[in-house]
Amino acid sequence: MKLTADLVAASPSYINAIKEYELDLSNNHITQLENLGSTRNLYDALNICTNTVRVLGNFPSLPRLLSIYASDNRIASIDRSIATAIPNIRTLVLTGNDLHELTDLEPLKELMQLEHLSVAGNPVASVQYARLWCVWRFKMLKVLDFERVTEKERKEARELFEVDGELTALAGDVLAVQQTNTFVPGEGLEEETVDLDKQQTISELKARIRSEMAQIEAMDEYV
């Protein structure tokens, strides 16, 4: 389904569990992010969970946007210029997508206010040193995959990837890996089908998002 201005206008919006004004575009079979300029920068949070989006990108300038909930899509790449359009993102939930390499996450390093990130349920989460890499690469992170980032982890990450302000050989090896998941917006969308057996019900989805936001709120109390 195309994400049209009419769909944006018809979608529910509300104050969510962490007191953000949220636009709920979840569960709409959306394949590509587009026409988000029609939101007129009115929202603090964007919920695009349980769609079939492949690329996290194509955002207009949305400086008010603080949180994106994008669990259970097919996101395999992130727009290199994402921080230009949405510079104030603090929370990014990418649970259950298709990001494979640590270099696929590189555009996020320009999100200077990113404090909460989840990549659990992506192949990248199983890559060696993935957690420590994210802790080192994204300096402002407080919570990663719903677990608080500790000072011990920060120290260990610095020792692995940085010596006297220079990259270690290990860090160089990580950055040398080519992004394996690239996608041209619009490519193959006519072949997109939705596996209904894998779709969550609306109530299940809402429960999951409430749970994720509650975890974020709880983590904030201890960070």
User: What Rg do the Cα atoms give?
Assistant: 17 Å
Give me the number of helical elements. Answer: 6
Q: Order of strands across the widest beta sheet?
A: 1-2-3-5-7-8-9-10
Shape: globular
Secondary structure: helix percent: 25-40%
Order of helices and strands: HEEEEEEHEEHEEHEEHH
- What fraction of residues sit in β-strands? 5-15%
Mean pLDDT over the residues = 88
Tally the beta strands. 12
* Class per helix and strand makeup: alpha/beta
Please tell me about this protein's structure.
The protein contains six helices and twelve strands. It is α/β, with parallel strands linked by helices and 223 residues long. The radius of gyration is 17 Å and the shape is globular. Residues 185-202 have low confidence and may be disordered.
In short:
By secondary structure, the protein is of the alpha/beta class. Helices cover 25% and strands 14% of the residues. β8, α3 and β9 form a beta-alpha-beta unit.
What are the defining features of this structure?
25% helix; 223 residues; alpha/beta; 8-stranded mixed β-sheet; globular; 6 helices; two-stranded parallel ribbon
Q: SSE layout and pairings?
A:
Blueprint lengths: L4 H6 L2 E3 L5 E4 L20 E3 L7 E2 L10 E3 L7 E2 L3 H4 L5 E3 L22 E3 L11 H8 L5 E2 L2 E2 L2 H11 E2 L2 E2 L1 H8 L25 H19 L3
Parallel strand pairs: 2-3, 3-5, 4-6, 5-7, 7-8, 8-9
Antiparallel strand pairs: 1-2, 9-10, 11-12
